[in-house]
Amino acid sequence: MSSERAHLVEEVLLRSRELSTETVMFHTAISETRGLSAVDSKVLDYLARFGPQTPKDLARLSGLAPASVTAMIDRLERKGIVGRQPHPDDRRRVLIALDEQAIASGVHLWDNLVKRMYELCDRYTDDELRTVIGFVEGATALTHESTAKLTDATDG
After folding, report:
1. What is each CA distance from 56 to 70, 93, 146, in whole angstroms?
2. How many angstroms separate the CA atoms of 20 and 23, rounded?
3. Cβ distance 110 to 116 under 8 Å?
4. Does residue 119 contact residue 97 with C-beta atoms inside 8 Å?
5. How far does CA 14 lie from the centroid of its chain?
């Protein structure tokens, strides 16, 4: 590897680390305004992106212990943010779903970041954005895989 490439890779890793830290701090700030933990907020993101999930699915996605997921669901249900609903294929199981009104009441907290991200994207060509998308997808998959290894979670 050339010294220039090594330097660029180190810069990518450093900037990714900085982005990760700032993202965690942003999510923590949003979560605190809603009376949630950052972990609560990110598990809610799984529900927003993937739809209703079983508690077991949430444990697998997040790498959290099943007992921790159950306690979190209980807290979020008491706050009116999620609800339990019957599983359509197995009446012994439940799905955890977002309360859309509760989520909608916090959407405004994202307005500045989303607006500014659109502005940032305007600085790049379509091909550059495709490159960024590929990098972020790869980094996301590697991070999820690393989390699963740390928590002994599996995709099965």
Report:
1. 9, 10, 19
2. 5
3. no
4. no
5. 21
- Look up the pTM and report it: 0.80
pLDDT tens digits, residue range 17-61?
Answer: 999 999 999 999 999 999 999 899 999 999 999 999 999 999 999
Q: 100: which 2 tokens?
A: 């859309």
Model confidence pLDDT, tens digit, residues 89-143: 988 999 999 999 988 999 999 999 999 999 999 999 999 999 999 999 999 999 9
Q: Radius of gyration of the chain from Cα atoms?
A: 18
Rounded (10°) angle between helices 38-50 and 3-33: 100
For 72, residues 6+ apart whose C-beta sits below 8 A from its C-beta are: 39, 40, 43, 64
Q: Which residues contact 96 (CB under 8 A, 6 or more apart)?
A: 47, 52, 53, 54, 55, 58, 73, 82, 83, 84
- Whole-number Cα distances in Å, 85 to 12, 43, 55, 91: 43, 17, 12, 10
